[in-house]
């Protein structure tokens, strides 16, 4: 458990709290993964780990995703908390500024690990301040979901593979009839205001663009402006579903499942919801249409170790176990995701449906990108992008002005 290091400013608030016991062989794993599983998989996983490592006891602490980040930050402030942490990549910079995470480079360099570091999904391993801070349990590549019935009704035989085809098909689908839209774009200011990272960033990466230069914001560059212009042109053509400024990712997913939208850019994991809830939908998924680069935004569930854990060796033993090809494959299947360890792909491939096979092809052949882990105050960064994209789509700002505004506001956030 974590060392008890109660800060003076938090003393009054913490008088009713008891620091976690620091016992050799006892570790705590805080995550939201089990909250999204109804089969008891993670309880069985912990039992299997403890059977293989009888000298280590794991306390599985499960919270909803929306609470985990807050719990990690609050626990760190008052000196209590967990040893192994379920992480979301966009939290990285904030957690490093606070000093929450233990660097993992020495652990990854060990020769007796159950995995080869070169087989792990690359994006979470990217060094910040010269060090590696997390490893991937699984991965969700962002893809484009396609309603093939609407594509054919609009006069096309195949989904779009590039921006020109995407723009033409989305416009034609929107013209089919009232209530049908080419593509949904969720740019609501309602928290978490994450529409741009769901839709804009995947298109930007497929355009060969980036929003960061290391840990420095770099939003006002030509590739960003070009991608913003593409979105503006799509909106001006009537291709984007009406009311984008009030639509959330959940609304767009529901509209696609209902068959009222031609295309949806979102994590590939949504394919299971789509096929299970509307099995009659003529559905497929493809890589996000490219404008020069085969790259995808990668999202997933990551693992880290608390810098204040008293049992880092036991914590790493659990992480090492979770990354072994056999266990990692089981965890991926349980989450209907792809494995963080690519050596487990062959196991996952067996029995996979056609949509998961297509995601595997993207994972194996394209470049994974995740920049929000390096952005200043990730949630605040999302809101800034959302507000400026809204202004652009309303016609209040040009793409160049919107990009410059995001850049200026991000630099303020970084201070």
From TrEMBL:
Keywords: Periplasm, Signal
Gene3D superfamilies named among the record's database cross-references: Periplasmic binding protein-like II (3.40.190.10)
KW DNA-binding (keyword) present: no
Cellular component, GO, one term: periplasmic space
UniProt cross-references to InterPro entries, sorted A to Z: Bact_solute-bd_prot1, SBP
Subcellular location: Periplasm
Main location: periplasm
Leader sequence segment: 1-24
Domain of life: Bacteria
Family: Belongs to the bacterial solute-binding protein 1 family.
PANTHER family membership: ABC TRANSPORTER SUBSTRATE-BINDING PROTEIN, ARABINOSE-BINDING PROTEIN-RELATED
Protein name: Sugar ABC transporter substrate-binding protein
Provenance organism: Nitratireductor basaltis
Upper classification of the organism: Bacteria, Pseudomonadati, Pseudomonadota, Alphaproteobacteria, Hyphomicrobiales
């Amino acid at each position: 458990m974590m060392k008890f290091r109660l800060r003076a400013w938090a003393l009054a608030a913490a008088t009713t709290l008891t620091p976690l016991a620091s016992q050799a062989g006892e570790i705590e794993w805080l995550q939201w993964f089990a909250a999204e599983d109804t089969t008891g998989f993670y309880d069985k996983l912990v039992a299997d780990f403890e059977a293989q490592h009888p000298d280590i006891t794991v306390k599985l602490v499960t919270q909803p995703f929306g609470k985990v980040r807050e719990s990690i930050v609050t626990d760190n402030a008052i000196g209590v908390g967990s040893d192994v942490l379920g992480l979301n990549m966009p939290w990285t910079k904030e957690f490093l500024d606070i000093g929450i995470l233990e660097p993992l480079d020495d652990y990854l360099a060990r020769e007796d690990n159950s995995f080869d570091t070169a087989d792990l999904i690359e994006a979470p391993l990217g060094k910040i301040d010269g060090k590696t801070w997390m490893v991937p349990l699984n991965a969700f590549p962002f893809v484009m979901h396609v309603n093939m019935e609407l594509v054919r009704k609009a006069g096309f035989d195949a989904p779009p593979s590039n921006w020109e085809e995407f723009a033409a098909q989305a416009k034609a689908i929107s013209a089919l009839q009232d209530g049908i839209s080419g593509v949904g774009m969720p740019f609501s200011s309602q928290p978490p205001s994450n529409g741009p990272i769901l839709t804009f960033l995947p298109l930007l990466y497929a355009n060969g663009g980036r929003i960061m230069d290391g840990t420095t914001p770099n939003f006002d560059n030509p590739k960003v402006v070009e991608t913003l212009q593409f979105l503006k042109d799509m909106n001006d053509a009537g291709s984007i579903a009406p009311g984008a400024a009030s639509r959330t990712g959940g609304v767009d997913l529901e509209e696609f499942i209902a068959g009222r939208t031609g295309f949806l850019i979102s994590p590939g994991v949504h394919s299971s919801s789509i096929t299970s809830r509307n099995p009659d939908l003529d559905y497929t998924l493809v890589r996000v249409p490219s404008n020069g680069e085969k790259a995808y935004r990668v999202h997933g569930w990551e693992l880290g170790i608390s810098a204040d854990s008293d049992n880092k060796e036991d914590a790493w033993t659990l992480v090492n176990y979770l990354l072994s090809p056999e266990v990692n494959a089981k965890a991926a299947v349980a989450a209907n995701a792809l494995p963080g360890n690519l050596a487990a792909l062959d196991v996952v491939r067996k029995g996979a449906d056609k949509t998961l096979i297509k995601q595997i092809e993207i994972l194996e052949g394209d470049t994974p990108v995740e920049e929000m882990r390096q952005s200043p105050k990730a949630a605040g960064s999302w809101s800034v992008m959302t507000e400026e994209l809204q202004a652009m789509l309303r016609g209040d700002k040009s793409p160049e002005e919107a990009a410059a505004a995001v850049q200026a506001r991000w630099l303020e956030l970084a201070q």
